[in-house]
Amino acid sequence: MATPTLTKHSLEGALGDLLVDVRTGDRRNPRPAVVIVHGFKGFKDWGMFPVVADRLARAGLTAVSVNLSGSGVDDAGDFSLPDRFTHNTYSAELEDITRTVAAVRAGAPLGFVPPAAIGLLGHSRGGGMAIVAAARDPALRALVTWAAIASIDRWSDEAKASWRRRGHLNIQNTRTGQVIPMSTAILDDIAENADGALDIIAAAGRIQMPWLIVHGDSDESVSVEDAKLLAAASSRSSTRLVLVPAGHTFGATHPLGGMPETLDRVMVETVEWFSRYLI
Hints:
Elements: E1 5-12, E2 17-24, E3 33-37, H1 49-58, E4 62-67, H2 82-86, H3 90-106, E5 118-123, H4 125-136, E6 142-146, H5 157-166, E7 168-172, E8 179-183, H6 185-193, H7 200-206, E9 211-216, H8 224-234, E10 239-244, H9 261-278
Parallel strand pairs: 3-4, 3-5, 5-6, 6-9, 9-10
Antiparallel strand pairs: 1-2, 2-4, 7-8
């Protein structure tokens, strides 16, 4: 099997450019593809994502990693686009995922032939949006979510009221120390769509494809109860819930030094899932 190569691409996103990495060992013949979606304050080159992309590519798939347009992060991994982060919304992220999948399906915009099948891998908030995207696109063939959120409404009424009074919510990037204001656009998005177009639990109930739900039993950011709610909402025999002894990133840090045992297990299960249902 050919050694995977990396190419970099740009697509038009909801709030600006989508920065896309493609890792594959074959650009001339149809291969199954997996789109990898990061979470809140994440980006395509954070910690574990390049490693899982490389493993997928070495397993015979095309791995497509994307910086969502509202991530605020450039291709060097620097948080140099804070205005996009300020105005990001769940709807913008869903639109970005939809556009990325469309480009993957076409193939040519990303430098390969149209794939034989497409799967989605999403982490945290990206996992929640991957669920919604998968429910809207029955042509997708497999889904894996890591530490996915089960609802977009993640703030108390008191916190949201304070946020609206101030006009913004300050978010600290613990990696860089930067403090970036997040506008009330996301609150409007929640008010308009939490019980409708962005209802993750309802979307989970519509998932038809094989779905692997992975969650750390000591997740400090997204409760393990979210995973249980998602699995219960699906209740299909093709949905599998795997709880592992880990926190939100399964032991990964940025940059990724060694390979934590639990993270390695999660990656092995993920690659096996996509290999089973896409290849």
